[in-house]
Design goal:
The protein is an alpha+beta fold and 599 residues long. Helices cover 35% and strands 19% of the residues. It has a domain of 203 residues: Beta-galactosidase, Chain A, domain 5 (Distorted Sandwich), CATH 2.70.98.50. The strands form nine sheets. The protein has an eight-stranded antiparallel β-sheet with strand order 6-7-8-11-17-15-14-13. A four-stranded antiparallel β-sheet has the order 1-2-3-4. A three-stranded antiparallel β-sheet has the order 5-12-16.
C-alpha cells in the first residue's frame, strides 16, 4: 500500500521524517516551522533528501529502540547486515536545561558480512527555492543557498567526504556516523562523540518513559503515542504543534492542503490534558505559561492558533515551485485560519486550567494569573456565546450556531465554577451559575432534532457531526442519557463507513470529504464504550489500530477506500485520541467482553 511509511525523530526543537528505506525526506532546521532543508516528501524531483542506496538483494526492517524516539532501520541480505540509527540529540545538561541542538545524527552500525552502500546526500535549502550548492570544505561538507535568502547546512562524517558527496560505493567493516547540523561545530565531532550523544539521548527517553504509567493492554500504543506527542512539543516556548508537516493532502490530487506546524489552542489543550493524565506535568505547565504569555491584556481575545514562538500573524502563501505530495498542490506555508473566530477554544482552555489546578494545585506557581484568566474567559463567553462562529472544522465560509461551540461555551462556565470553588472565590458563583443554566437550556432547546433523533451539527439543522460525541466527554450530558445514546446510534448510521467516520457529510467549501478524520473514529469508539457497547468498541479499536503505519503512527486522515494514511503527519490530534481510547479500553478484559455479549 502506498502509505505514509515514515518514522519521526526529534528533540522538541525540530523533527525529521525517515522513510522505511532510511531516507530523510522531510526536515526543517533550526526549528519545526523553519524552511525545509529536505523536502522530497513534497516534491520527488527537487525537494531534496538524505538516503542510502544498496543493491536489490537487501531488505529493510524499521523499528524504534524500545521506549525511545530513536529509530533503527536494518538493512540485510542475510549475510551482509548494517543498521542506520537515527536520532536528534536531547538530554539534560548540568545547568538544568536541555541539550537539543538543531541537528540529527545517523549512526551507521556494522553488524556482519561486507555490506556495500552509496550515500545519496542532496539537501535543498529554503524549501528548495533557488540553487543549493554543496561542496567539501576541510572538516565538513557545506551546503549553501544565497539566492533567495542566505542559508547553510553542515555535514560531518568519518567517511571519506568526496566518496560520500559523489555517491561512490562504500564498503562497511566498522561503525561510522553522519551529523547534519544547522550550525558549524566549534569542535569537530568524531565517532566517539556520536556514540556518546546516542547513549545520552537513549537515557533521556528511557527516563521520560519511566514516568509514564503502564496499562493492562495497549501499553505499546499508548507509549508510542505519548512519545509522539512529546516530539510535537516545542521546548523553547511550551507550544504544542498540530503536526510536523505542511500540505500533506486530506485527499490525493485535491486542494485541502494546510500547514500544521503551528499551535492550535484546541489541539494543544487536548494534548496537554492527556499528557497531564499520564503524569507529565512539565509539558502541561510550560504550555500554560505559553498561553499566559499570549494574553497580555485582560480583554484581548484568544486566537484559535499561534506560531510556535507566539507569533500572532501567520500569513498564508503558496510555494508554487513544489509539485506537492503525490502531485497534490498547492504547497502552503502559513495558515489563514488564524483569523477565524471559534468560540469553543475558551471551553477547552478552561477545561485544561481546571484539570491542572485540580491535579497539581500545590504545584501551580501562577494561580493568580490563572484566576485572572478564568474571570477573563467567563467575561468573553458571556459576551459572545450567542454569536455564530466557524466551528471546530474551520469552515471558511459562513458562520453558524454550531452545537460543539455552544457546548464548549457551557464547558467554559462549568469549569470556571469549579475553579472558583477550588480557589475559594465564591462571590461570582451565583451569577456564573445563571449563565451556565442559560447556555445549557439554549443547547437542549435548539441542538436536538426530533426528526433525526440526535443532537445535530448546528442549530435548526438535520446534519450530523462527529464533534457532538464530545458532549459526554466534557460532562454536558451523561453517557446513558437516552438523547446521547440516540445521537451515537444516529451518527453510526449516517457517518460511519466500514468502521471509519466522516466528520460530517455537509458539503463544505471543498465538497464532500472522501477521507475519514482519524480522531472522529476514536471519538466514536470511545462513545460506544461509554454507552455500554464495550465489545463492539474493542473490535472497532483493533480494526482502527491496524490502519496505522508500520511504526504505529497516524496522520490526520484515512482514505475510506484504500485505508491509506492521508493528511499531515504525525498528527497530535489522532495520537491524543488514541491514548484516551486505549486507556478506557485497556480495562476491558476478555471476560467482560463475553459478559457484554451475553447481555
Amino acid at each position: 500500500m502506498n502509505n505514509l511509511d515514515y518514522g519521526i525523530i526529534g528533540n522538541c526543537r525540530s523533527a525529521a521524517l525517515v522513510s522505511k528505506e532510511a531516507s530523510i525526506d522531510w526536515c526543517c532546521l533550526p526549528k519545526f516551522d523553519s524552511a525545509s532543508v529536505f523536502a522530497k516528501l513534497l516534491d520527488d524531483d527537487i525537494g531534496g533528501s538524505f538516503g542510502f542506496i544498496v543493491d536489490e538483494s537487501y531488505t529493510t526492517n524499521q523499528f524504534y529502540l524500545e521506549n525511545t524516539a530513536i529509530l533503527i532501520t536494518r538493512f540485510s541480505n542475510g549475510i551482509d547486515v548494517f543498521e542506520v540509527i537515527d536520532f536528534m540529540p536531547r538530554y539534560h545538561k548540568s545547568n538544568g536545561g536541555y541539550h537539543s541542538p538543531p541537528e540529527f545524527i545517523r549512526y551507521i552500525k556494522y553488524i556482519s558480512g561486507k555490506p556495500v552502500l552509496k550515500v545519496a546526500y542532496n539537501p535543498k535549502l529554503e524549501y528548495a527555492k533557488g540553487v543549493t550548492s554543496t561542496y567539501v570544505k576541510g572538516d565538513f561538507i557545506v551546503s549553501l543557498n544565497n539566492e533567495q535568502s542566505y542559508d547553510t547546512l553542515f555535514l560531518y562524517t568519518d567517511l571519506e567526504k568526496n566518496a560520500v558527496l559523489e555517491g561512490e560505493s562504500i564498503s562497511l567493516t566498522s561503525d561510522h556516523f553522519f551529523l547534519v547540523g544547522y550550525n558549524e561545530k566549534l569542535f569537530v565531532p568524531d565517532l566517539k562523540y556520536a556514540s556518546l550523544e546516542f547513549e545520552r539521548t537513549k537515557v533521556y527517553w528511557l527516563n521520560w518513559m519511566e514516568r509514564t504509567p503502564t496499562y493492562k493492554k495497549y501499553n505499546e500504543q499508548i507509549s508510542r503515542s505519548a512519545m509522539t506527542l512529546k516530539l510535537l512539543s516545542y521546548d523553547k516556548t511550551g507550544a504544542v504543534l498540530a503536526a510536523a508537516t505542511t500540505s500533506l493532502p486530506e485527499t490525493i490530487g485535491e486542494v485541502r492542503n494546510w500547514d500544521y506546524r503551528f499551535c492550535w489552542i484546541r489541539d494543544a489543550s487536548m494534548v496537554i490534558k492527556v499528557m497531564s493524565q499520564l503524569g507529565h506535568k512539565n509539558i502541561a505547565r510550560r504550555y500554560l505559561d505559553f498561553i499566559i504569555s499570549l494574553m497580555p491584556d485582560k480583554d484581548e481575545k484568544l486566537q484559535i492558533m499561534y506560531g510556535i514562538s507566539g507569533e500572532k500573524i501567520l500569513t498564508e502563501e503558496s510555494l508554487d515551485h513544489l509539485s506537492g505530495y503525490k502531485g497534490s498542490s498547492p504547497v502552503r506555508v502559513g495558515n489563514a485560519a488564524y483569523m477565524q473566530k471559534q468560540n469553543d477554544i475558551y471551553g477547552i482552555l478552561m477545561d485544561v486550567i481546571h484539570q491542572l489546578l485540580a491535579k497539581f494545585s500545590n504545584d501551580i506557581e501562577n494561580g493568580e494569573e490563572l484566576w485572572t484568566m478564568t474571570k477573563g474567559i467567563v467575561w468573553v463567553v458571556s459576551k459572545h456565546w450567542q454569536e455564530p462562529d466557524k466551528g471546530i472544522w474551520e469552515f471558511r465560509e459562513g458562520d453558524q450556531h454550531f452545537t460543539f461551540s455552544k457546548v464548549l461555551c457551557w464547558t467554559a462556565i462549568d469549569k470556571a465554577l469549579k475553579v472558583a470553588k477550588l480557589l475559594g472565590k465564591t462571590s461570582k458563583i451565583a451569577r456564573w451559575q445563571l449563565l451556565e443554566e442559560a447556555i445549557r437550556k439554549d443547547i437542549m432547546d435548539n441542538a436536538w432534532n426530533d426528526k433525526v433523533q440526535a443532537f445535530t451539527q448546528a442549530y435548526n439543522s438535520e446534519d450530523l457531526d462527529a464533534s457532538v460525541l464530545l458532549m459526554e466527554s466534557y460532562g454536558f450530558i451523561d453517557a446513558k442519557h437516552p438523547k446521547f445514546v440516540s445521537t451515537v446510534k444516529a451518527i453510526e448510521r449516517d457517518l460511519c463507513h466500514e468502521g471509519l467516520l466522516y466528520r460530517y457529510k455537509t458539503k463544505d467549501d471543498f465538497g464532500l470529504p472522501s477521507s475519514s478524520f482519524t480522531i472522529c473514529t476514536f471519538w466514536f469508539i470511545n462513545s460506544l464504550y461509554k454507552i455500554g457497547e464495550e465489545q463492539k468498541a474493542a473490535e472497532q479499536f483493533e480494526k482502527l489500530l491496524s490502519y496505522s503505519n508500520h511504526l504505529g503512527l497516524f496522520s490526520e486522515d484515512i482514505d475510506f477506500k484504500t485505508k491509506r494514511l492521508l493528511g499531515n503527519f504525525p498528527q497530535a490530534y489522532s495520537h491524543l485520541a488514541l491514548i484516551e481510547t486505549a486507556i478506557n479500553l485497556s480495562n476491558v478484559t476478555p471476560e467482560e467482553k463475553v459478559k457484554d455479549t451475553l447481555g
